[in-house]
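Subject: Sanity check before I submit

Could someone independently write out the C-alpha cells for this chain? I want to compare against mine line by line before I put it in a report. The sequence has 81 residues.
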Amino acid sequence: MGVLLELLFFALPFLAYLIWWRATGSKPGHEPSRRLIVLAAIGVVCGVAAAMYYGLSRSFEGDDYVPARIERGGIVRGTVR
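---
Independent answer below. Compare away.
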C-alpha cells in the first residue's frame, strides 16, 4: 500500500500537467503564460522556505547522535542521547 501511495505522489504532478495541457488545448511549443511562471516561482520559494524552516526547527541542540551500527549480526538503530 505504501509503495502505491508513493507512486501516486510521484505521478500526481505529471497527471496534473497532462490534465491542464488537455483542458487548455495547448499545442507543443506553446509558451506558458507569465502568470503561471510567477505562480510556479512563488510555489518553489514557499517550498524551499518551508523546508529550511522545518530543518532549522528540528535541530539536535545539546544532544549527541549515535548512528546505526551492527552488533552480534543484527542492526541496532541510531539514537539521540
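---
OP: Matches mine. For the report I'm noting this point. The chain has two helices and four strands.
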